[in-house]
Amino acid sequence: MPERDLKPYALVLSCIFAAAFLAGAFAPPPARQEVTRIFRFVDGTYRDLAGGTLFLLILANNVIGSFLTLLFGLFLGIVPVMSVASNGLILGVLCRQAGETQGYAKAALAVLPHGIFEIPALLIAASYGLRLGAAVLRLARRKESTPIGPRLLHAVRRYFVVVFPLLVLAAAIETALLLAVS
Question: Where are the domains of the chain?
Answer without folding.
Answer: 4-181
